[in-house]
Amino acid sequence: xxxxxxxxxxxxxxxxxxxxxxxxxxxxxxxxxxxxxxxxxxxxxxxxxxxxxxxxxxxxxxxxxxxxxxxxxxxxxxxxxxxxxxxxxxxxxxxxxxxxxxxxxxxxxxxxxxxxxxxxxxxxxxxxxxxxxxxxxxxxxxxxxxxxxxxxxxxxxxxxxxxxxxxxxxxxxxxxxxxxxxxxxxxxxxxxxxxxxxxxxxxxxxxxxxxxxxxxxxxxxxxxxxxxxxxxxxxxxxxxxxxxxxxxxxxxxxxxxxxxxxxxxxxxxxxxxxxxxxxxxxxxxxxxxxxxxxxxxx
Length: 298
Known about the structure:
CATH class of the largest domain: Mainly Beta
Domain DAGKc: 2-134
Keywords: ATP-binding, Kinase, Lipid biosynthesis, Lipid metabolism, Magnesium, Metal-binding, Nucleotide-binding, Phospholipid biosynthesis, Phospholipid metabolism, Transferase
CATH architecture of the largest domain: Sandwich
Number of strands: 15
Radius of gyration: 19 Å
Largest sheet: 11 strands, antiparallel
Protein name: DAGKc domain-containing protein
CATH topology of the largest domain: Tumour Suppressor Smad4
GO molecular function, one term: ATP-dependent diacylglycerol kinase activity
Number of helices: 8
Number of domains: 2
Order of helices and strands: EHEHEHEHHEEEHHEEEHEEEEE
Helix content: 25-40%
GO biological process, one term: phospholipid biosynthetic process
């Protein structure tokens, strides 16, 4: 057991069909019972939680930041602690939990997650930094989607009904009828590639979307980015290839190419990227890997 800590806790109450609140509260009780001070950083939305968390880190009023929820909460936590010496604890309580699972952390188990957080072991992982036109650094730690998958997300998020997975299923069906290969410029460490593609993903971790192994060999701590390009194929071929992503078997298809580098620039018209499942930035965008930028409590 570590010495008593001041734990900055952020809970997403709606994560995992509202299990985030239950598991988050259970974790808070366990941490408090172990003698740690809970500093509640939860807020009405992500922007306010970021502001509260950044203020707490700046004021040195917390020793660690712990997030309870899914990949979106991991994304928020990474944007709080990246580039600082404050470690991140993860209480995985969402629907997908890809980053937690790929990092070997417990999923939907408050007691095991708290044990990982309080035993004192850490792991340094890479994070990906993008600097906006306004000079703000934005980070992600898993996968950035910038093709068919991002287009579906954007369409689904524009609908208020239906709720849950059905909304995304309908968005997929709607998009398949109108989707066309996207002209891209993909620049990696200064080498320019021009192509038409169905999907481009920039990966620091292997998986996204609830278990899709989009780049199975990607590693959180190798100092490199893996860029997957699914070049132009027919819609029937896309429907045959895409389901194979759950086992990582899509990478053997001749239309799939994986490139590696430290700095990536993506250019395409009308595409808004999604990173760690969260709406991120419109293309064009530039991002780079920052080795060891985040310390995770493991």
